[in-house]
Amino acid sequence: MNDVLVGRALAKRFGQTIALGGVDIAVRAGEAVAIMGPSGSGKSTLLHCLAGIMKPDSGEVHLLGQRIDGLRERERSALRRTRFGFVFQFGQLLPELPAEENVALPLMLGGVTRVQAVRQARDWFGPLGLQGMETRRPGELSGGQAQRVAIARALVSKPAVVFADEPTGALDQNTGRDTMRLLVEATKHNGASLIVVTHDPNVAAACDRTVEVRDGQLLTGAQMTFPEARR
Ligand code: ADP
Questions:
Q1: SS3 109
Q2: Are strands 193-197 and 32-36 parallel, antiparallel or unpaired?
Q3: Ligand 1 nearest-atom number relative to CA 38
Q4: Residues 173-186: pLDDT tens digits?
Q5: Could you tell me the pLDDT band of residue 226, with boundaries at 50, 70 and 90?
Q6: Which of 7, 81, 110, 162 could bridge to 85 as Cys pair (CB 3.0-4.6 Å)?
Q7: What proportions of the chain, in percent to the nearest 5, are helix, strand and coil?
Q8: Ligand 1, from 14, 43, 47: best to mutate by most atoms within 8 Å of Cβ?
Q9: Are 33 and 196 in contact (CB under 8 A)?
């Protein structure tokens, strides 16, 4: 159907540890999905397998009908740059670059000239409430502003899927709520799907749907501890 990203029977172990024990997940176009679960349950491993950062030991990942888990590292790297966007807990902006160049970076890595990439990057500052912040360095931004720069950087390449790992984990509650709302709205506005790994029920509540991971397995129905988020 209109599934954008599909993981089938994803399994991954690290030595004796089964990080993923056969996970099936499908994310639809424009959908925001939260992945919750206790520390060590396999959330990050699942995100990394879906995003082509890590190869699963077995199982398949399909993006828009194309199988991507078997691609070589070089191809997966190109895919991550062009079809996926990433937002991490601490933004991971490059401290020596002004905000506009941090946003422009994925375009420049894809071969767009610096001038052109920065011009495109600037278009994101207004809609994300960052007017006037274009030439500030990350150290001159608040935590919430830095995360909005990271959101712009994740969206600038017009990705099919944005992956976020605890995107509000370093923010206070109010800033986190505003940032999460903006992340969901901006991602949907740009036609991308969103997959968010989080411990925070408030973050999950901003998404359309929550899946829960426990010991490398997805919980279903009555097993879930956040049934109120099940929609
Ligand atoms: P979560 O994101 O839910 O905290 P992870 O996916 O990071 O969980 O980890 C799942 C399990 O796999 C944990 O037991 C963790 O210790 C183990 N694990 C994850 N990455 C590695 C690694 N690179 N080497 C060894 N063990 C790992």
A1: helix
A2: parallel
A3: 3
A4: 999 999 999 999 99
A5: low
A6: 162
A7: 35, 25, 40
A8: 14
A9: yes
pLDDT per position as a tens digit, 40-85: 999 999 999 999 999 999 999 999 999 999 999 999 999 999 999 9
CA distances from 127 to 54, 62, 131, 136, 182 (A): 33, 32, 8, 17, 10
The number of the ligand 1 atom at minimal distance from the alpha carbon of 45 is 6
- Is the pLDDT score of 228 beyond 80? no
Which amino acid, 161?
V
Both tokens assigned to 44: 């990050």
Helix (H, G, I), strand (E, B) or coil at 203: helix
The larger pLDDT score, comparing residue 220 to residue 11, is at 11
Q: Give, using CA atoms, the residue closest to atom 13 of ligand 1.
A: 40
Helix (H, G, I), strand (E, B) or coil at 218: strand
* pLDDT tens readout for residues 176-216: 999 999 999 999 999 999 999 998 999 999 999 999 999 99
pTM of the model: 0.93
How far are the Cα atoms of 14, 155, 159, 222 from residue 84, in angstroms, in the given order?
A: 25, 8, 5, 32
**What percent of the chain has a predicted confidence (pLDDT) above 90?**
88
CB proximity list for 160: less than 8 A, separation 6 or greater: 4, 5, 63, 64, 83, 84, 192, 193
- Answer yes or no: are the C-beta atoms of 216 and 43 closer than 8 Å: no
